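@channel sequence for tomorrow's demo:
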Amino acid sequence: MGNMLTVSSSPHLSSGATTKRIMLDVIISLVPASIAAVVFFGWKSLVLIAVCIVSCVALEYICRRVMKRKNTTGDLSAVVTGLLLALNLPSGINPLIAVFGCIVAIVVVKQMFGGIGNNFVNPAITARIVLLVSFPVHMTTWEKPFEWLRTADSVTGATPLAMMAQGDKTSYLDLFLGNTGGCIGETCVLALLLGGIYLVIRRVISPIIPLCFIGTVFVLSFLLGGDPLFHIMSGGVMLGAIFMATDYTTSPMNPLGKVIFGIGCGVITVLIRLYANLPEGVSFSIILMNILVPHIENLTRTKPFGKEKKNEKA
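structure tokens (generated this afternoon):
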């Protein structure tokens, strides 16, 4: 008898990448930003990160048990969601509010749509927007960097974008190193770039979306009379472009779609910043482009090689 051949459906090649390995790489890439958060904003940041991670993992476990589905806490996706949500919050926010955000991210956005791979918007971004609308004062009260070393009481200050609106401006060096007010994970550009480079080297993300997102913010803000370098280093541009706009489930698969997605995020971000009542537009830009992803995929779908042959009548 000849050699036995196995017939199976595609794909026939495997990269060896698993959800757990990918999520672990994302966690590792966020370590520099997490360390910077603790350095600049103190022990409250560490507590916030711990609360969000534990809450997201516990909520995912409970949801899967209630829904009688396979336990997926081991894939680390809930840890990533909790960590990203924490990095998108002010250091002084009440932990109970953060837990409410975890419920929105895990229960509503993720598990009610079927779990990982089925949500149509980014869970952490959606939770941040819900919290911003529900608790606007808590979500826009920023503590000054290093004040936790000087006094036991919280000393609040404005973000670079809010300061710019008032005619003041933060130095480029402070923006790059993170010595500014803001969400705990978005201030240190250096830490975010280190994490992004790690993800690209590990081939966890493609650089297309971050480059198109950041590049569009730079070019469009320059054309509209703004300071392009300030705009890309302030607010949540770096955090959003590198870690949330690149989410596998809620971003396009093919290169052209990624370009359109990144440019769209950049355009909406700049328009909101310059012409809307909100000083920041990253979260809204990403979630709006998330909703458009199915249409982007349809418009940029690659055509298969060859053509279908019609059956000839006998």
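heads up for whoever presents: The chain has a mean pLDDT of 88.
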